[in-house]
Design a protein that fits this description.
This protein is of the alpha+beta class. It has 2 domains: about 350 residues, Thrombin, subunit H (Beta Barrel); about 230 residues, no CATH class. It is built from 23 helices and 22 strands. Strands 1, 2, 3, 4, 5, 6, 7, 8, 9, 10 and 11 form an 11-stranded antiparallel beta sheet that branches. Strands 13-12-20-21-22-19-16 form a 7-stranded antiparallel beta sheet. A two-stranded antiparallel sheet has the order 14-15. Strand 17 and strand 18 form a beta hairpin. The radius of gyration is 26 Å and the shape is globular. About 45% of the residues are buried. The structure holds arginine and glutamic acid. The site of glutamic acid has 9 residues, from strand 21. Arginine binds next to helix 9 and helix 12.
């Protein structure tokens, strides 16, 4: 009786809360964090909402920056010292590298302020404040007016009005931008990029993915263009560092700039991503990577030449595999469909909402082929070079590239012909294939014109301009600038209403706006996960794991000799700890924070708001969290701050930097 009663109660519970607010899901707006603070404190957080975000006093937000428009960084000293990922500082490190000073390979350690290296194209932004401006806009003020006013509030201020919940709310973000940001330190790539693309998106992970910069300001502590007279910026706030270590279950918080999520899209869009788009793009990239990998294996010059290209193709390729797999595994399409049906049933007698789900579905049906064609075109024809520059042609490696480039061209033409819906295929392409006999034969003709200097490039140019015309035609059909996702102007309007309705209907759900590169808080805990039946992945890795992977024969696993020596001598100093009875150094850890691209470099903080690590990745099977967060699987990956300090000290010999940092006394 009791058991039956329980079963019924459970079934009823499942029926009403189809998508309950999952434990650690969510990327919350800092200015509204008071709405979450009780939950955060229940999970172990010890501070207040005002400590996280305040416009009246210095708060944690004043220690976090948007790093160069795509990553996150945090202040770790009162003298402008900034920590971010190695892969976020990569361009700057590369720009300063030459054959004589190869900082990418050997690392870079400024031993004094004078040695810090200025960077032309590098800026950071602090959030001055954010505020909802929905009412001001409704009252007739334009976004442009609001932005203009906000920018005039301070020197080098930037401002933006961003939509939340598909335009149901509008928020003004005011930033102070600093343009004099200097490189202080970077570990060798064999630490900062340890494991390379092989370990990318993978746990167990052993990457010391960090680099250090310093923000400089004018003598008045305000933003100033680069000048040797500038002085280290004195931030309102910087993070205290905790070396007490992490334990499974410990509260964690991530403060950063997540770029793009789509948690509220209809089942139709999820099915499109997981069943149509991801598999097609993965297959196209698998072919490209096979060609490039074979070339790299055949010739060391080609290995280096294609390294960056391989990395960027492989990054999204691996991410999409995890996304499609995770969505399939979780049954997200079916559960979203049930959710929509529940909403539609509720909305039946509400004129504002009664047609919304059907209208959304109709719009998806209208645009899906066009958007798919756009994606396929971007991955194929549009991924080919429009020309080879004179500098490229002059490189010694250029002639060796011919067979590879030709094979890529043929592969991509073949994929385009077979996968792009024919009504959206470029007319010039269809004609070319018909005349040549096959996409591959046509590719060979086009490639020869591209490759040979002085060849007749008329056909090549015609194909290029036809391709651009087709892409802009599709853009026009969709009528929106947000072409990152399957979207259209009409969809945006419909979603505005749909989300409004969802929030009225699903009152138990904890809604948070999709990521849009605005500052967010995510909270969770240090945690491993069940990787496979009976196989638990612990949340912490150590130096012992690095040594186990070390292999001088394999580029990505060839660690610095200094690290081998340290392991042999066990001279870890104050960075050594005992884990499972072994004396070792902690390296990376896993947590349940909801993160995405843009969260790279984000501070990961303990219950007291002290820095315990640096976010840099997720496991590949977690990447589904851009669409649906699965508490059982989704984990972010952080470098343990103790490994960062160990490398600064023992590999870089730059422990003088510790003098300006604050360390927590708590053990
Ligand atoms: N997967 C991480 C991110 O999405 C790191 C990428 C850089 N690292 C690499 N090995 N490619 O950006
Ligand atoms: N590596 C990503 C970045 O550059 C973060 C990983 C993720 O997508 O979570 O932002």
């Amino acid at each position: 009786m009791r058991i039956i009663g329980q079963a019924i109660a459970l079934a009823m519970l499942a029926a009403v809360s189809v998508q309950p607010a999952r434990a650690d899901e969510g990327m919350w707006l800092p200015s509204l964090i008071s709405e979450r603070i009780d939950d955060m404190r229940a999970k172990g957080f010890r501070l207040t909402a005002e400590d996280i975000y305040s416009i009246n006093k210095a708060s944690m937000k004043d220690a976090v920056v948007l790093f160069n428009g795509g990553c996150t960084g945090e202040l770790i000293s009162g003298e402008g010292l900034l920590l971010t990922n190695h892969h976020c500082g990569y361009d700057a490190i590369q720009t300063h590298s030459s054959v004589e000073h190869d900082y990418l390979t050997h690392g870079f350690w400024a031993m004094s302020r004078q040695q810090e290296l200025p960077n032309k194209e590098l800026n950071v932004r602090f959030l001055v404040r954010m505020e909802e401006v929905t009412d001001r806009i409704a009252a007739g003020e334009t976004k442009e007016e609001i932005i203009r006013k906000a920018k005039s509030e301070g020197r080098n201020y930037r401002a933006a009005v961003e939509q939340m919940y598909y335009g149901n709310q509008q928020f003004l973000f005011v930033y102070e931008q600093f343009d004099d940001v200097r490189l202080v330190a970077a570990p060798p790539s064999s630490i900062g990029k340890f494991g390379g693309d092989t370990d990318n998106w993978i746990w167990p992970r052993h990457t010391g993915d960090f680099s250090l910069f310093r923000i400089y300001a004018g003598k008045d502590n305000k933003p100033a263009a680069y000048s040797p007279d500038n002085v280290p910026y004195r931030p309102k706030r910087h993070f205290t560092i905790s070396t007490a270590g992490v334990r499974e279950g410990d509260f964690t918080m991530i403060y950063g700039f997540p770029g793009n999520t789509q948690e509220y899209i209809l089942s139709d869009a999820v099915a499109y991503v997981a069943e149509r788009s991801d598999p097609a793009k993965i297959a196209i990239r698998t072919g490209r990577l096979d060609i490039i990998t074979a070339a790299q294996a055949s010739d060391p010059a080609l290995r280096i030449h294609y390294a960056a290209k391989h990395a960027s193709i492989a990054n999204a390729w691996k991410k999409w595999q995890g996304e499609a797999l995770g969505i399939g595994r979780l049954g997200t399409v079916a559960s979203k469909r049930a959710y929509e049906e529940g909403f539609a049933a509720w909305a039946q007698d509400k004129p504002e909402y009664s047609r919304i789900v059907a209208d959304l579905k109709a719009e998806y049906a209208r645009i899906a082929d066009a958007y798919f064609a756009r994606e396929i075109t971007r991955e194929t024809l549009d991924a080919l070079p429009a020309r080879y520059t004179a500098e490229e042609r002059a490189e010694a490696v250029f002639p060796q590239r011919k067979a590879t480039e030709r094979a890529l061209c043929q592969w991509l033409f073949g994929q385009y012909a077979r996968r792009c819906p024919v009504q959206y295929q470029v007319p010039e392409f269809l004609d070319g294939v018909a005349a040549a006999g096959s996409p591959e034969a046509y590719a060979a003709q086009i490639f020869d014109a591209l490759w040979l200097q002085g060849a007749d490039t008329t056909a090549l140019h015609a194909l290029h301009s036809d391709t651009k015309r087709m892409l802009s035609h599709i853009g026009w059909m969709l009528g929106t600038k947000s072409l990152r996702n399957l979207n259209s102007a009409r969809l945006n309007e419909l979603y505005t209403t749909y989300i409004k309705g969802l929030r009225e209907w699903d009152t138990d759900r904890a809604f948070y706006p999709d990521a849009n590169l605005t500052l967010r808080v995510a909270y969770g805990h240090v945690g491993g996960y069940e990787y496979a039946d009976g196989e638990y992945h612990k949340p912490q890795t150590t130096l012992d794991g690095i040594i186990a992977k070390d292999n001088p024969e394999i580029y990505d696993y060839d660690i610095p000799q200094a690290l081998r020596d340290l392991y042999a001598s066990k001279a870890y100093g104050r960075w050594g700890t005992t884990i499972d009875g072994r004396k070792t150094v902690p390296v990376c850890f896993l947590a349940t924070n909801h993160t995405t691209g843009g969260n790279s470099g984000s501070p990961i903080l303990n219950a007291r708001g002290e820095l315990i690590g640096l976010n840099f990745d997720r496991t590949w099977r977690s990447t589904m969290s851009d669409i649906a967060f699965d508490e059982a699987i989704c984990r972010n990956i952080a470098v343990d701050i103790r490994y960062v300090l160990f490398v600064i000290d023992r590999i870089g010999g730059a422990d003088y930097l510790f003098d300006e940092m604050d360390f927590s006394r708590r053990k």
